[in-house]
Amino acid sequence: MPAPKVLVPADELGTFTTSLFTAAGVSPANAATISAVLTWASLRGVDSHGASRVPRYLELLDSGEANRDPSLSVGSTSPAVAVLDADRAPGPVALTAAADLAAEKAKINGIGAIGVRRTVHTGAIGYYTSRIAEAGLVGIAFVAGMPNMAYPGVRGAAVATSPLSIAVPAPGHAPALLDMATAGIALGKIAQFRNAGKELPPGTAATADGTPTTDPNLAKMPLPLGGVKGAGMSLVFELLTSVLVGAPILSSFHGDDPQGRVHRQNALILALDPAAFGDGDAFGPAVASTLDTLKGLTPAGEGTEIRYPGEGGASVAAKRAADGVPVAAKVWSELQVAAEKLGVAVPAVV
Question: Which pTM does this prediction carry?
Fold first, then answer.
């Protein structure tokens, strides 16, 4: 039997989580930004990165791992490139700023590339590329973090479950949105399987020493998606983010750096202006035509729906925006405890 859930109106969920972060000492603007990213994930059905993350974010803020009042600073190395030092800001704050800056630069220079260093838990990476796509640009993002995933031939965690996202605007359609990790399963998903009492899909997770397991109670880390392919992608994302901005994580974590185990993440966000590559006005319709062509191909079986990346999430978001966002009862209970501690009113739920 599936774990029980409560149904929360989307607007009220956003307002509630914003209030929790504000009560925890985050500025109203930053609290609203964090809430927007988490609510976006909940709306799209990415529950592992949605409301279920709120208690963890509050822990990060309470412990000081995430900075309640960060001072973001930007250093430019060329008109189209900049490095944003996040000062341990929660990821939604740092990466939203980086996405907006990348889009701003792309509109002037054809491309904007923003490296981000020293942020804490980037959240649903697809939010940032989608934000760029909403501006009529192509968004691309990579993230590298603390080693928490296996690597072929290594005992224990070696690399990070580094995600990748690409968003392409398509007039009359939800943007094409690729949002994936280099792992076979997200850590948050492992927790969801544990809470639901379900076995994990084979080949997605391992025990602390790297032994594959389907038991969510024994699983301590994900396995790379596609084996060497996911592992290799994670490694190069570390090179393209952490090493590129002068803040290596992998070598620091596995070396003798006393700060090597301090929680942090780095990112690279790119925005491309289609007009810089040719006929900008023709690009959107051509993307839409490509998606329509894909959806018009012969289905593999009767009743099979052909979808492009991001289409399913957009459909779920529309339904949840109208009907409410389902939140696991366990998560809702944790949010109620946090609300009582912080003196925040809890919205009514079904």
Answer: 0.94
